[in-house]
Design goal:
This protein is mostly helical. It is built from 19 helices and two strands. The protein has one domain. It has a two-stranded antiparallel sheet with strand order 1-2.
Protein backbone atom coordinates (compact mmCIF):
# COMPACT_ATOMS: atom_id res chain seq x y z
CA UNK A 1 0.00 0.00 0.00
CA UNK A 2 1.41 3.39 -1.01
CA UNK A 3 2.13 5.96 1.66
CA UNK A 4 -0.66 8.25 0.49
CA UNK A 5 -3.17 5.40 0.52
CA UNK A 6 -2.08 4.37 4.03
CA UNK A 7 -2.42 7.93 5.28
CA UNK A 8 -5.90 8.19 3.79
CA UNK A 9 -6.98 4.87 5.26
CA UNK A 10 -5.61 5.68 8.70
CA UNK A 11 -7.26 9.10 8.70
CA UNK A 12 -10.57 7.50 7.78
CA UNK A 13 -10.31 4.96 10.61
CA UNK A 14 -9.26 7.55 13.19
CA UNK A 15 -12.06 9.89 12.15
CA UNK A 16 -14.53 6.99 11.97
CA UNK A 17 -14.00 5.81 15.52
CA UNK A 18 -14.29 9.41 16.69
CA UNK A 19 -17.63 9.76 14.91
CA UNK A 20 -18.85 6.48 16.41
CA UNK A 21 -17.79 7.71 19.85
CA UNK A 22 -19.65 10.98 19.34
CA UNK A 23 -22.86 9.29 18.20
CA UNK A 24 -22.73 6.81 21.11
CA UNK A 25 -22.40 9.61 23.65
CA UNK A 26 -25.12 11.74 22.11
CA UNK A 27 -27.45 8.73 22.13
CA UNK A 28 -26.54 8.10 25.77
CA UNK A 29 -27.18 11.58 27.14
CA UNK A 30 -30.28 11.99 24.98
CA UNK A 31 -31.78 8.97 26.73
CA UNK A 32 -30.23 9.66 30.16
CA UNK A 33 -30.31 13.37 30.90
CA UNK A 34 -28.43 14.04 34.14
CA UNK A 35 -30.01 15.34 37.31
CA UNK A 36 -27.54 17.76 38.88
CA UNK A 37 -28.05 17.60 42.64
CA UNK A 38 -26.56 20.36 44.76
CA UNK A 39 -24.07 18.09 46.49
CA UNK A 40 -22.41 16.43 43.48
CA UNK A 41 -19.22 17.49 41.74
CA UNK A 42 -20.97 17.74 38.39
CA UNK A 43 -23.12 20.61 39.67
CA UNK A 44 -19.99 22.53 40.64
CA UNK A 45 -18.37 21.94 37.24
CA UNK A 46 -21.57 22.93 35.41
CA UNK A 47 -22.06 26.08 37.48
CA UNK A 48 -18.44 27.23 37.21
CA UNK A 49 -18.45 26.37 33.49
CA UNK A 50 -21.51 28.59 32.99
CA UNK A 51 -19.68 31.31 34.93
CA UNK A 52 -16.84 31.19 32.41
CA UNK A 53 -19.33 31.26 29.54
CA UNK A 54 -21.09 34.35 30.89
CA UNK A 55 -17.90 36.33 31.50
CA UNK A 56 -17.66 35.86 35.27
CA UNK A 57 -14.30 34.09 34.95
CA UNK A 58 -15.30 31.08 37.01
CA UNK A 59 -16.54 32.99 40.05
CA UNK A 60 -19.70 31.84 41.83
CA UNK A 61 -22.16 33.46 44.27
CA UNK A 62 -20.57 33.93 47.68
CA UNK A 63 -22.11 33.47 51.07
CA UNK A 64 -23.25 36.92 52.15
CA UNK A 65 -23.41 38.34 48.62
CA UNK A 66 -21.07 39.11 45.76
CA UNK A 67 -19.01 36.58 43.84
CA UNK A 68 -15.91 34.62 44.79
CA UNK A 69 -13.51 32.16 43.19
CA UNK A 70 -14.21 28.59 44.23
CA UNK A 71 -11.05 26.51 44.53
CA UNK A 72 -12.87 23.24 45.12
CA UNK A 73 -11.38 21.76 41.92
CA UNK A 74 -8.83 22.90 39.31
CA UNK A 75 -10.15 25.20 36.56
CA UNK A 76 -9.42 23.52 33.21
CA UNK A 77 -12.57 21.42 32.80
CA UNK A 78 -15.08 24.15 33.74
CA UNK A 79 -13.18 26.51 31.44
CA UNK A 80 -13.60 24.01 28.59
CA UNK A 81 -17.30 23.70 29.43
CA UNK A 82 -17.54 27.48 29.26
CA UNK A 83 -15.87 27.56 25.85
CA UNK A 84 -18.22 24.84 24.63
CA UNK A 85 -21.23 26.80 25.86
CA UNK A 86 -20.07 29.90 24.01
CA UNK A 87 -19.43 27.97 20.79
CA UNK A 88 -22.81 26.21 21.02
CA UNK A 89 -24.54 29.47 21.94
CA UNK A 90 -27.91 28.43 20.49
CA UNK A 91 -28.25 25.55 22.97
CA UNK A 92 -29.25 25.61 26.62
CA UNK A 93 -26.43 25.52 29.15
CA UNK A 94 -26.96 21.84 29.97
CA UNK A 95 -27.21 20.71 26.34
CA UNK A 96 -24.14 22.70 25.33
CA UNK A 97 -22.13 21.17 28.18
CA UNK A 98 -23.31 17.65 27.34
CA UNK A 99 -22.38 18.13 23.70
CA UNK A 100 -18.99 19.45 24.78
CA UNK A 101 -18.40 16.28 26.83
CA UNK A 102 -19.54 14.13 23.91
CA UNK A 103 -17.03 15.85 21.61
CA UNK A 104 -14.29 15.32 24.20
CA UNK A 105 -15.15 11.61 24.26
CA UNK A 106 -14.94 11.45 20.47
CA UNK A 107 -11.53 13.16 20.58
CA UNK A 108 -10.35 10.62 23.17
CA UNK A 109 -11.32 7.73 20.87
CA UNK A 110 -9.59 9.31 17.88
CA UNK A 111 -6.40 10.13 19.80
CA UNK A 112 -6.19 6.57 21.15
CA UNK A 113 -6.65 5.19 17.64
CA UNK A 114 -4.00 7.58 16.28
CA UNK A 115 -1.58 6.44 18.99
CA UNK A 116 -1.95 2.79 18.01
CA UNK A 117 -1.52 3.65 14.32
CA UNK A 118 1.79 5.30 15.18
CA UNK A 119 3.21 2.60 17.44
CA UNK A 120 2.17 -0.33 15.19
CA UNK A 121 4.40 0.84 12.35
CA UNK A 122 5.97 -2.62 11.88
CA UNK A 123 2.66 -4.31 11.12
CA UNK A 124 1.23 -4.91 7.66
CA UNK A 125 -1.19 -2.17 6.55
CA UNK A 126 -4.24 -4.38 7.06
CA UNK A 127 -3.25 -5.49 10.55
CA UNK A 128 -2.30 -1.93 11.43
CA UNK A 129 -5.71 -0.60 10.43
CA UNK A 130 -7.48 -3.30 12.43
CA UNK A 131 -5.40 -2.54 15.53
CA UNK A 132 -6.12 1.16 15.12
CA UNK A 133 -9.87 0.58 14.85
CA UNK A 134 -9.99 -1.82 17.82
CA UNK A 135 -8.13 0.52 20.16
CA UNK A 136 -10.29 3.47 19.18
CA UNK A 137 -13.50 1.50 19.61
CA UNK A 138 -12.46 0.36 23.10
CA UNK A 139 -12.76 4.03 24.06
CA UNK A 140 -15.60 4.98 21.72
CA UNK A 141 -17.96 2.19 22.82
CA UNK A 142 -16.81 1.45 26.37
CA UNK A 143 -19.93 1.89 28.56
CA UNK A 144 -17.97 3.16 31.56
CA UNK A 145 -16.16 5.77 29.48
CA UNK A 146 -19.38 6.79 27.75
CA UNK A 147 -21.09 7.10 31.13
CA UNK A 148 -18.80 9.96 32.18
CA UNK A 149 -20.43 12.17 29.52
CA UNK A 150 -23.66 12.75 31.44
CA UNK A 151 -22.01 13.25 34.84
CA UNK A 152 -20.37 16.52 33.74
CA UNK A 153 -17.23 15.68 35.70
CA UNK A 154 -13.58 16.25 34.85
CA UNK A 155 -13.04 12.69 33.61
CA UNK A 156 -14.66 13.80 30.34
CA UNK A 157 -11.61 16.00 29.70
CA UNK A 158 -9.06 13.83 31.47
CA UNK A 159 -9.41 10.84 29.12
CA UNK A 160 -8.58 12.79 25.93
CA UNK A 161 -5.82 14.69 27.76
CA UNK A 162 -4.14 11.44 28.83
CA UNK A 163 -4.56 9.99 25.33
CA UNK A 164 -3.08 13.18 23.89
CA UNK A 165 -0.18 13.00 26.34
CA UNK A 166 0.59 9.42 25.28
CA UNK A 167 0.49 10.46 21.62
CA UNK A 168 2.72 13.47 22.26
CA UNK A 169 5.05 11.29 24.33
CA UNK A 170 5.45 8.91 21.39
CA UNK A 171 6.45 11.85 19.21
CA UNK A 172 9.07 12.73 21.81
CA UNK A 173 10.31 9.12 21.87
CA UNK A 174 10.71 8.95 18.09
CA UNK A 175 11.95 12.47 17.38
CA UNK A 176 13.53 13.70 20.60
CA UNK A 177 12.85 17.26 19.43
CA UNK A 178 12.22 20.30 21.59
CA UNK A 179 9.01 20.94 19.68
CA UNK A 180 7.78 17.54 20.87
CA UNK A 181 8.76 18.55 24.40
CA UNK A 182 6.80 21.79 24.21
CA UNK A 183 3.77 19.98 22.78
CA UNK A 184 3.87 17.35 25.50
CA UNK A 185 4.35 20.05 28.13
CA UNK A 186 1.25 21.90 26.93
CA UNK A 187 -0.81 18.72 27.27
CA UNK A 188 0.67 18.03 30.71
CA UNK A 189 -0.26 21.55 31.80
CA UNK A 190 -3.88 21.08 30.73
CA UNK A 191 -4.03 17.74 32.52
CA UNK A 192 -2.48 19.19 35.67
CA UNK A 193 -5.16 21.89 35.64
CA UNK A 194 -7.88 19.27 35.08
CA UNK A 195 -7.31 17.04 38.08
CA UNK A 196 -5.21 17.71 41.17
CA UNK A 197 -3.23 14.47 40.73
CA UNK A 198 -2.80 15.07 37.00
CA UNK A 199 0.79 16.22 37.32
CA UNK A 200 1.68 12.88 38.93
CA UNK A 201 0.26 10.68 36.15
CA UNK A 202 1.28 12.94 33.28
CA UNK A 203 4.68 13.66 34.79
CA UNK A 204 5.27 9.91 34.97
CA UNK A 205 4.41 9.68 31.26
CA UNK A 206 7.08 12.30 30.50
CA UNK A 207 9.72 10.43 32.51
CA UNK A 208 8.82 7.17 30.76
CA UNK A 209 9.10 8.86 27.37
CA UNK A 210 12.62 10.10 28.19
CA UNK A 211 13.59 6.58 29.25
CA UNK A 212 12.06 5.03 26.12
CA UNK A 213 13.89 7.50 23.88
CA UNK A 214 17.20 6.49 25.46
CA UNK A 215 16.52 2.76 25.08
CA UNK A 216 15.34 3.18 21.50
CA UNK A 217 18.05 5.43 20.12
CA UNK A 218 20.74 5.53 22.79
CA UNK A 219 20.25 9.27 23.18
CA UNK A 220 18.24 10.41 26.22
CA UNK A 221 15.71 13.12 25.39
CA UNK A 222 16.57 14.99 28.57
CA UNK A 223 16.11 18.51 27.23
CA UNK A 224 12.65 18.01 25.65
CA UNK A 225 11.62 15.96 28.68
CA UNK A 226 12.76 18.73 31.02
CA UNK A 227 10.87 21.28 28.92
CA UNK A 228 7.68 19.21 29.16
CA UNK A 229 7.99 18.80 32.93
CA UNK A 230 8.85 22.47 33.41
CA UNK A 231 5.72 23.59 31.58
CA UNK A 232 3.54 21.23 33.61
CA UNK A 233 5.11 22.23 36.93
CA UNK A 234 4.79 25.91 35.99
CA UNK A 235 1.04 25.44 35.45
CA UNK A 236 0.70 23.76 38.85
CA UNK A 237 2.83 26.38 40.58
CA UNK A 238 1.01 29.26 38.92
CA UNK A 239 -2.48 28.13 39.84
CA UNK A 240 -1.41 27.07 43.34
CA UNK A 241 0.23 30.46 43.90
CA UNK A 242 -2.94 32.26 42.81
CA UNK A 243 -5.08 30.09 45.11
CA UNK A 244 -2.65 30.55 48.01
CA UNK A 245 -2.63 34.34 47.65
CA UNK A 246 -6.43 34.41 47.55
CA UNK A 247 -6.69 32.12 50.59
CA UNK A 248 -3.89 33.65 52.62
CA UNK A 249 -2.37 30.22 53.21
CA UNK A 250 -0.82 27.42 51.15
CA UNK A 251 -3.24 25.78 48.70
CA UNK A 252 -1.92 23.14 46.32
CA UNK A 253 -4.18 23.04 43.24
CA UNK A 254 -7.53 22.83 45.05
CA UNK A 255 -9.30 22.82 48.41
CA UNK A 256 -10.74 19.37 47.80
CA UNK A 257 -7.71 17.50 49.12
CA UNK A 258 -8.83 17.55 52.72
CA UNK A 259 -12.27 16.17 51.93
CA UNK A 260 -10.72 13.51 49.70
CA UNK A 261 -8.27 12.39 52.36
CA UNK A 262 -10.70 12.38 55.29
CA UNK A 263 -13.55 10.73 53.38
CA UNK A 264 -11.21 7.89 52.41
CA UNK A 265 -9.60 7.47 55.83
CA UNK A 266 -12.33 7.09 58.40
CA UNK A 267 -14.25 4.16 59.92
CA UNK A 268 -16.89 4.19 57.16
CA UNK A 269 -14.16 3.82 54.50
CA UNK A 270 -12.13 1.25 56.43
CA UNK A 271 -14.70 -1.47 56.75
CA UNK A 272 -18.07 -2.83 55.73
CA UNK A 273 -19.63 -1.91 52.40
CA UNK A 274 -17.53 1.26 52.20
CA UNK A 275 -14.13 -0.40 52.58
CA UNK A 276 -11.73 1.22 50.12
CA UNK A 277 -14.25 3.86 49.05
CA UNK A 278 -15.12 7.39 50.25
CA UNK A 279 -17.92 8.68 52.46
CA UNK A 280 -19.05 12.30 52.73
CA UNK A 281 -20.32 11.74 56.28
CA UNK A 282 -16.71 11.54 57.45
CA UNK A 283 -16.17 15.23 56.71
CA UNK A 284 -17.97 16.05 59.98
CA UNK A 285 -15.13 14.39 61.93
CA UNK A 286 -12.99 17.50 61.41
CA UNK A 287 -15.49 20.02 62.79
CA UNK A 288 -13.59 20.39 66.06
CA UNK A 289 -10.55 21.59 64.12
CA UNK A 290 -12.48 24.42 62.41
CA UNK A 291 -13.05 27.83 64.00
CA UNK A 292 -16.55 28.44 65.34
CA UNK A 293 -17.22 31.28 62.88
CA UNK A 294 -16.27 29.05 59.94
CA UNK A 295 -18.40 26.20 61.30
CA UNK A 296 -21.36 28.58 61.44
CA UNK A 297 -20.84 29.51 57.81
CA UNK A 298 -20.49 25.90 56.65
CA UNK A 299 -23.73 25.12 58.48
CA UNK A 300 -25.43 27.99 56.67
CA UNK A 301 -24.21 26.68 53.33
CA UNK A 302 -25.49 23.22 54.25
CA UNK A 303 -28.94 24.60 55.14
CA UNK A 304 -29.10 26.33 51.78
CA UNK A 305 -28.07 23.11 50.03
CA UNK A 306 -30.75 21.14 51.86
CA UNK A 307 -33.38 23.65 50.80
CA UNK A 308 -32.24 23.91 47.16
CA UNK A 309 -31.66 20.38 45.90
CA UNK A 310 -30.62 21.30 42.35
CA UNK A 311 -28.52 24.44 42.85
CA UNK A 312 -24.91 24.90 43.87
CA UNK A 313 -24.85 26.43 47.33
CA UNK A 314 -23.13 29.75 48.05
CA UNK A 315 -19.37 29.46 48.39
CA UNK A 316 -17.22 30.36 51.38
CA UNK A 317 -14.41 32.85 51.02
CA UNK A 318 -11.12 31.38 49.73
CA UNK A 319 -9.62 31.71 53.21
CA UNK A 320 -12.42 29.67 54.78
CA UNK A 321 -12.38 27.14 51.92
CA UNK A 322 -8.70 26.56 52.65
CA UNK A 323 -9.28 26.45 56.41
CA UNK A 324 -11.87 23.69 56.10
CA UNK A 325 -9.66 21.68 53.73
CA UNK A 326 -6.64 22.04 56.02
CA UNK A 327 -8.66 20.89 59.02
CA UNK A 328 -9.95 17.86 57.14
CA UNK A 329 -6.47 16.94 55.92
CA UNK A 330 -5.09 17.26 59.45
CA UNK A 331 -7.81 15.00 60.81
CA UNK A 332 -7.18 12.43 58.03
CA UNK A 333 -3.44 12.34 58.73
CA UNK A 334 -4.08 12.00 62.45
CA UNK A 335 -6.35 9.01 61.86
CA UNK A 336 -3.82 7.37 59.51
CA UNK A 337 -1.08 7.78 62.14
CA UNK A 338 -3.38 6.40 64.83
CA UNK A 339 -4.54 3.42 62.74
CA UNK A 340 -1.82 2.64 60.14
CA UNK A 341 -2.84 -0.99 59.70
CA UNK A 342 -6.48 -0.15 59.04
CA UNK A 343 -5.34 2.40 56.46
CA UNK A 344 -3.03 -0.16 54.86
CA UNK A 345 -5.71 -2.86 54.76
CA UNK A 346 -7.92 -0.51 52.74
CA UNK A 347 -5.42 -0.40 49.87
CA UNK A 348 -6.33 -3.78 48.26
CA UNK A 349 -10.00 -2.80 48.41
CA UNK A 350 -9.23 0.53 46.75
CA UNK A 351 -7.38 -1.19 43.92
CA UNK A 352 -10.15 -3.75 43.45
CA UNK A 353 -12.76 -0.99 43.26
CA UNK A 354 -10.63 1.01 40.83
CA UNK A 355 -10.28 -2.01 38.57
CA UNK A 356 -14.00 -2.64 38.76
CA UNK A 357 -13.45 -6.06 40.33
CA UNK A 358 -15.29 -5.06 43.49
CA UNK A 359 -18.23 -2.82 44.28
CA UNK A 360 -20.79 -2.40 47.03
CA UNK A 361 -24.17 -0.92 47.76
CA UNK A 362 -22.52 2.22 49.15
CA UNK A 363 -20.52 2.73 45.98
CA UNK A 364 -23.46 2.05 43.66
CA UNK A 365 -25.63 4.49 45.60
CA UNK A 366 -22.96 7.19 45.43
CA UNK A 367 -22.39 6.65 41.72
CA UNK A 368 -26.10 6.81 40.99
CA UNK A 369 -26.26 10.09 42.90
CA UNK A 370 -23.43 11.35 40.68
CA UNK A 371 -25.46 10.55 37.58
CA UNK A 372 -24.25 7.04 36.68
CA UNK A 373 -26.77 4.48 35.47
CA UNK A 374 -26.29 1.13 37.29
CA UNK A 375 -27.68 -1.08 34.52
CA UNK A 376 -25.48 0.74 32.00
CA UNK A 377 -22.30 0.54 34.09
CA UNK A 378 -22.68 -3.18 34.80
CA UNK A 379 -21.88 -4.31 31.22
CA UNK A 380 -18.93 -1.93 31.30
CA UNK A 381 -17.58 -3.59 34.44
CA UNK A 382 -17.94 -7.03 32.87
CA UNK A 383 -16.32 -5.85 29.63
CA UNK A 384 -13.32 -4.61 31.54
CA UNK A 385 -13.05 -7.60 33.88
CA UNK A 386 -13.51 -10.31 31.25
CA UNK A 387 -12.02 -8.75 28.11
CA UNK A 388 -10.00 -5.55 28.50
CA UNK A 389 -8.07 -6.37 31.69
CA UNK A 390 -7.06 -9.94 30.69
CA UNK A 391 -5.98 -8.80 27.24
CA UNK A 392 -4.12 -5.83 28.73
CA UNK A 393 -2.23 -8.24 30.99
CA UNK A 394 -1.30 -10.31 27.93
CA UNK A 395 -0.24 -7.13 26.17
CA UNK A 396 1.87 -6.11 29.16
CA UNK A 397 3.53 -9.52 29.26
CA UNK A 398 4.32 -9.34 25.53
CA UNK A 399 5.99 -5.96 26.04
CA UNK A 400 8.03 -6.99 29.08
CA UNK A 401 8.90 -10.60 28.15
CA UNK A 402 10.99 -9.96 25.04
CA UNK A 403 12.06 -13.56 24.50
CA UNK A 404 8.63 -15.14 24.86
CA UNK A 405 6.41 -16.17 21.97
CA UNK A 406 4.09 -13.34 22.93
CA UNK A 407 6.98 -10.91 22.80
CA UNK A 408 7.97 -12.12 19.35
CA UNK A 409 4.45 -11.56 18.04
CA UNK A 410 4.33 -8.08 19.58
CA UNK A 411 7.71 -7.14 18.11
CA UNK A 412 6.40 -8.09 14.70
CA UNK A 413 3.87 -5.27 14.93
CA UNK A 414 5.54 -2.61 17.08
CA UNK A 415 8.54 -1.52 19.10
CA UNK A 416 7.68 -2.60 22.66
CA UNK A 417 9.70 0.21 24.26
CA UNK A 418 7.30 2.76 22.75
CA UNK A 419 4.58 1.42 25.05
CA UNK A 420 6.59 2.35 28.15
CA UNK A 421 4.60 5.60 28.70
CA UNK A 422 1.31 3.65 28.56
CA UNK A 423 2.57 1.11 31.08
CA UNK A 424 3.86 3.79 33.42
CA UNK A 425 0.54 5.67 33.21
CA UNK A 426 -1.23 2.57 34.52
CA UNK A 427 1.33 2.23 37.29
CA UNK A 428 0.95 5.88 38.30
CA UNK A 429 -2.83 5.52 38.35
CA UNK A 430 -2.54 2.47 40.61
CA UNK A 431 -0.35 4.43 43.03
CA UNK A 432 -2.82 7.33 43.08
CA UNK A 433 -5.73 4.92 43.65
CA UNK A 434 -3.92 3.16 46.49
CA UNK A 435 -3.26 6.54 48.10
CA UNK A 436 -6.82 7.87 47.79
CA UNK A 437 -9.81 5.61 47.12
CA UNK A 438 -11.11 3.26 44.45
CA UNK A 439 -13.62 4.24 41.79
CA UNK A 440 -13.96 3.15 38.18
CA UNK A 441 -14.45 6.76 37.09
CA UNK A 442 -10.96 7.58 38.38
CA UNK A 443 -9.66 4.98 35.92
CA UNK A 444 -9.90 7.76 33.32
CA UNK A 445 -6.15 8.26 33.82
CA UNK A 446 -5.50 4.72 32.59
CA UNK A 447 -8.32 4.04 30.10
CA UNK A 448 -6.28 4.94 26.97
CA UNK A 449 -3.39 2.79 28.21
CA UNK A 450 -5.68 -0.16 28.91
CA UNK A 451 -7.20 0.20 25.42
CA UNK A 452 -3.75 0.19 23.80
CA UNK A 453 -2.41 -2.71 25.86
CA UNK A 454 -5.60 -4.73 25.36
CA UNK A 455 -5.31 -4.22 21.61
CA UNK A 456 -1.75 -5.53 21.65
CA UNK A 457 -2.87 -8.42 23.86
CA UNK A 458 -5.69 -9.23 21.44
CA UNK A 459 -3.20 -9.38 18.57
CA UNK A 460 -0.97 -11.73 20.55
CA UNK A 461 -3.88 -14.01 21.48
CA UNK A 462 -5.30 -14.18 17.94
CA UNK A 463 -2.00 -14.73 16.17
CA UNK A 464 -0.81 -17.10 18.87
CA UNK A 465 -3.96 -19.18 18.41
CA UNK A 466 -3.48 -19.20 14.64
CA UNK A 467 0.10 -20.33 15.11
CA UNK A 468 -0.97 -23.17 17.40
CA UNK A 469 -3.75 -24.29 15.07
CA UNK A 470 -1.41 -24.24 12.10
CA UNK A 471 1.16 -26.20 14.18
CA UNK A 472 3.80 -23.64 13.25
CA UNK A 473 3.76 -24.73 9.61
CA UNK A 474 3.49 -21.15 8.39
CA UNK A 475 4.14 -17.72 9.78
CA UNK A 476 1.36 -15.25 10.23
CA UNK A 477 1.89 -12.14 8.05
CA UNK A 478 1.86 -9.51 10.77
CA UNK A 479 5.04 -7.58 9.99
CA UNK A 480 5.30 -5.27 7.03
Amino acid sequence: MRASAKATASTAVVAGVGLIGLLARVAYFTDHRPILFSGVDGTWYSTVGHSFATGHLGTVPALGGGRVVSFRFPPAFPAVLGIGERVLFWMSTLHAQLWTCAVLGAIAASLTAALVWRVSSRATPGVRLVLTAVAGLLIALNPLVIGTTATLMSESLYVPVVAGALLAADHLVTSGSRVAGVTLGAVVAVGALTRSEGIVVLGAIVVAAVFAARVRSGRPALVPGAIALAIGVAAVAGWSAFASVQAGRLVVMSTNGGSLALGANCPLAWGGSGDGYWDSQCEALARHRIRASTRAQTDEVQRYTNAHAFTLGPELSPARQAEVSSAQLGEALARIRAHPLRAAFAVPHRLARGLGLSTSSAQRSSEQFEGRIPWWDTPGRWLFALVILPLALVGTWSVLAHRSRAGAIARGALEPVRLAPALVAVGAWLVVTASTYGSTRFRAAAEPSFAVLATVGGLVVVLGAVHVLSRGERDVPVAA
